[in-house]
Each structure stands twice: as C-alpha cells, then as structure tokens.
Design goal:
By secondary structure, this protein is mostly helical. It is built from 5 helices and 3 strands. Strands 1-2-3 form a 3-stranded parallel beta sheet, covered by helices on one side.
C-alpha cells in the first residue's frame, strides 16, 4: 500500500504535531485493517514552484514546509513498520521542468506516469523491504 499525504495539510497551515498525529492515526488504521500489507510512504512532491503556489505562501516557505513534512512522513512510516520511498529528487526535477497539471498546482499526468514507472521498478518483490514492525 502506498501513502502520500500532506499537501492539503501544508495549504491549511497544519502544525508539525497535527500532521504527525494524523499520520499516526492513518498508519494505525492501515495496520489494523490490513496488517499484512506492505506500507510505503511517498514524499510530498515539490509544488513550491507550481504557478499558483504563491497563493499559499512564498516559494521558500512552501519548500521548507514540504521538506519538514517529508522528514515527518519518513519518521512516522518507519515507526509504523513501513518504508519511505524517496522519489523527491524526481519530483523536484519535474517541478523545475514545469510538469504541472492545467490547474497550475498538481503534478501533470506525465509526472504521475513517471512516478508510476519508478515505483513499478522500486516496489518489485525484494527490491525495497519494509522496516521491521515496532
């Protein structure tokens, strides 16, 4: 199971503590409902360079929040016995290339297709192994 959560939390100016608590609830629910599932968390994409991002703050402030939330996402999925799949370098490169959907904020379909191709390779059995359960 892959989880990518947090962009709306950033837009809503959620605190680190609230974001962390929400991730813990989500991970706990996943572990309760699908205990045998391999849990993989993805980083927040770099939407700080998207055309409408400045509606939500400065590029620097947004990039800093994305980086902080990605640290929290890594910590929390590992505490839940899952694996953080760091495709942020690809996401950052896509932002620089302007791979944005027509709404001016979300990644484009081509960007998502690139994520899927990388994940297809990375999530092959035995390639990435989830951390052991706590």
């Amino acid at each position: 199971m892959t989880v990518l959560i947090g962009a709306n939390d950033i837009v809503a100016a959620s605190t680190d503590e609230r974001y962390r608590a929400q991730l813990r609830r989500i991970h706990s629910s996943i572990r309760t409902d699908a205990p045998a599932a391999a849990l993989y968390a993805l980083p927040q994409p770099d939407w700080s360079l998207a055309p409408v991002a400045t509606s939500f703050g400065t590029v620097t402030a947004i990039a800093a929040r994305i980086a902080r939330f990605n640290v929290i996402a890594r910590e929390e999925v590992e505490l839940a016995g899952g694996t953080f799949v760091d495709i942020f370098p690809l996401m950052r490169e896509q932002a620089v290339r302007g791979m944005v959907a027509p709404d001016g904020l979300h990644p484009s379909a081509a960007a998502y297709a690139e994520w899927a191709a990388v994940l297809r390779e990375l999530l092959q059995p035995g390639y990435l192994r989830p951390a052991s359960s706590p």
